[in-house]
Amino acid sequence: MTLLTNILDYNQQFVEEQSYEEYRTTKFPDKRLVILTCMDTRLVELLPKSMNMKNGDVKVVKNAGAIVSHPFGSIMRSLLVAVYELQADEVIVIGHHDCGMSAINSNSILDKMKERGIPEETIDTVNYSGIDLHDWLKGFSSVQESVAHSVDMIKNHPLMDKNIPVHGLVISPETGKLDLVVEGY
Known about the structure:
Elements: H1 3-16, E1 33-38, H2 43-50, E2 58-63, H3 74-84, E3 90-96, H4 106-115, H5 120-128, H6 133-136, H7 143-155, E4 166-171, E5 178-182
Parallel strand pairs: 1-2, 1-3, 3-4
Antiparallel strand pairs: 4-5
């Protein structure tokens, strides 16, 4: 039995038993907040619990490292949609200690791509087309600096409402303790 089969079997039972009822809410965040955070598995339940958030309270956008790397990429678009269409009045960027992006090595990732069958020619073509894969795949050395950088990109985005507070925090994936990096008020 595959992982997907297990998921679909469980889901069928979840729906048949109407287990979804306790999670019903609207698409609008009750606390009028959008959070950009990391996709780290340790934060899935810890982050909302450590902030007293429940289903329906906030919009959550996740990516590797909670990084806004491009001002017109999908992360920034999601944050703008949350503000302009989904009634979020504040933004919080939350990085975390011991983040995988702090130890990432672009050469290692490229080697792993090749091991899984991505031809060197494909990597060369991407590089020749103007994408510097080493830059695109780089991480960061300081989570605090990375969070501050993402806050700055969001706050100074030409399409972001200047009245929206943008905060930056770092969470401990062991304890859930939040440390303030940028207070956006």
